[in-house]
Amino acid sequence: MNKKLTCISKLQVERRKFRPVLPDILKKGASFIRLVKGKFMSSAVDQVNLRKIFKNTYGLPEIMFKRGASVDISKKSIKVAVVFSGGQAPGGHNVIAGLFDGLKKANKKNILIGYLGGPSGILENRYKLISKKMLFNYRNTGGFDFIQSGRAKIETPEQFRLIKDNFSASKVDALVIVGGDDSNTNAAMIAEYMEKENLNKCVVGVPKTIDGDLKNDYIEASFGFDTATKIYSELVGNICRDVNSSRKYWHFVRLMGRSASHITLEVGLKTQPNIVLIGEEILESKMTLVQVVEYIVSIIVKRSQDGKNFGVILVPEGLIEFIYEIKELIYNLNDVLVKNAEIVTNEEKKEFVYAKLPKEHFNFMKSLPIEIASQLMLDRDPHGNVRVSLIETEKLLVEMVKKRLLELKKEDKYEWKFSAITHFFGYEGRCGIPSNFDANYTYALGYNSAVLVLNGITGYLSSIRNLVRPPKYWKCGGIPLTMMMNIEKRHGEYNPVIRKALVDLNGKPFKKFVKNRVKWAVNDSYVFPGPVQYFGPLELTDMTTKTLQYERSE
Ligand code: FBP
Fold this sequence. Notes:
Structural class: alpha/beta
Number of helices: 22
Radius of gyration: 24 Å
Number of domains: 2
CATH superfamily of the largest domain: Phosphofructokinase domain
Distance between the termini: 48 Å
Strand order of the largest sheet: 1-2-13-12-7-6-3-4-5
Largest sheet: 9 strands, mixed
Strand content: 15-25%
Helix content: 40-55%
Bound molecules: 1,6-di-O-phosphono-beta-D-fructofuranose
CATH architecture of the largest domain: 3-Layer(aba) Sandwich
CATH class of the largest domain: Alpha Beta
C-alpha cells in the first residue's frame, strides 16, 4: 500500500471497485486486434508547409482496429513511458491504468514507467517504474498526482537530442503523451524527430483537456470535459437557485476553458442561466467591449423592469481574446512581450510595453482598470498562450456594467439597483473524481494506446469514437497527429501547432442555445443539475454531455 495515501475517503474506496467497461474490440487484448489502414489524412490548412516540416509523419492513414491478429506482438517485451502534460483533467490516472493493463495483458514482461512532472521529466530523465500495487489507489481517481504534470515545450535541437539519449539510456521503446493541443504538438514533433533519426521509437498522444477544444470528426471529445462541466454545472445550478431564492444579486461567473467557449456553452445548456457569452460569436460579430457591455446591460435593465434585480451570467475564460479590439491588442502585446526578457519589475514592464504599442492600443490599455492591464501583460505560458485564467474578465465586466448603469441613471433613463458578485470556476473542476463516462473513456484511451504502441504505430493520437453509445460499442483506432495541425504565430514566430477546435456557430449545441437564450434571459428557466452521480440509475451515472449528445445525434 502506498504510504502517502493512508487517508482515503469512503467514496474513493467504493470508486476503486469500479471496473471500467472496455469497448468489445479491446476486451481480448492487443493480440486479438488487427490494424486496418483507412484513408490518408492531411491537415485542413497549411498542407505544403506542414508536409515540409513533418517529412516522415505527414499524410499518414487513419488506423482502425478490427477483430483478428496481424502480428504476434506478445513475443517481444517492450518498455513504454507515459507522461502527463498541461492542465489536469479528470481521468488521467485511468489512462495510465488502461495503458498498464493493456501492456500487461499482451505480455507480462512489458514495462511501464511514468515521467515525473510533465515533459521536463523526459528531459531530466526523472521517472518511476509503475507497478500494479502502486496503481491500485489511483484507479478511478481525479488529479494527476501519481506522476504530476507540467507545461514544458519541446522545441530545440538540444531537447530532442536529450530525449533520444534518455530513451536510449533507459531503453524506452515508446512514449505516450497525455495532453491537449500544445502537448500533442510536442508529441508530433518528437515522433517526427524519432522517425527522421531512424530510432524506431513510437510516440502516441491521448486527447486530454477539460477545455473540450481538442476534437474533430475522429476525436469526438477530449477526456475531462465531461466531469469538469458536470462539476461546474452543479456549482452554477446552485448559484441559480440562490439568486432565485434571495432575488438580490447578479452573479458573474467566469468559467475555465482557455480559448474555446465549449465549457461555458455546455454549462449554459445544462443550467439555463440568464446570460451566456460565447467568445466565438462575439468574435464573429466583431463586437467591441462596449457592445458586449451594452448587451449585458440591456438584459439587466429588461429584467429590472420586470422587477427582477438578479440573474446569472456566464463568461468564458477566453472572452477577452475574442473581443475585437482586445484580440488585436493581445496580438501586438505578444510580439512586444517576447522582447522583454531582461525586464523584471512590473513598472519597467509597463513602461517598456506602453512605449512600443501603437497609439490606439496604448490609449485602450490606459482606459482599462490597472489590474486588468497588468494581467494582460503577464508572461505567456511556455507555449506562447495568454494566461487567461489569471485575467479577471468578470470583474472588468462588472465595473463597466456599473458605470454604464450610472450613466443611464444620470440620463434619467433608468433607476438602477445592481449588486454583483463575481466567481471564477476552473481549478475546482479539473481534478474532480472522474464521472463514469470519463472513467470508462480514459481507461479505454489508455488501453487503446497500448495497442497502438505494441503495433509500432507512431505519430498518432489515440482515437475512440461512437461515444454516445455505451462503451461496449465504441470504435477504436488512431489518427495521425499532423492532420490536426496548422501554422500559428507563437512567441513572435510561426510554428506548427495543433489547431484548437472552437465552438462551431453552425453546430447543433450552439444553435440549441441560440433558440433558447431570449427565453432564458427574461424568464427564470434555471435548471439545477446537482452533483456528479457515480452510483444509481444508468441514465444518471452514464449521462454524456449535452455537447456530445447534440453534436453526435442524428
Ligand atoms: P490544457 O489545455 O493543458 O488542458 O489546460 C487547460 C486549462 O485548464 C485551461 O482551461 C486554463 O486556462 C489553463 O489550463 C490554466 O493553466 P494553469 O494550470 O497553468 O494555471
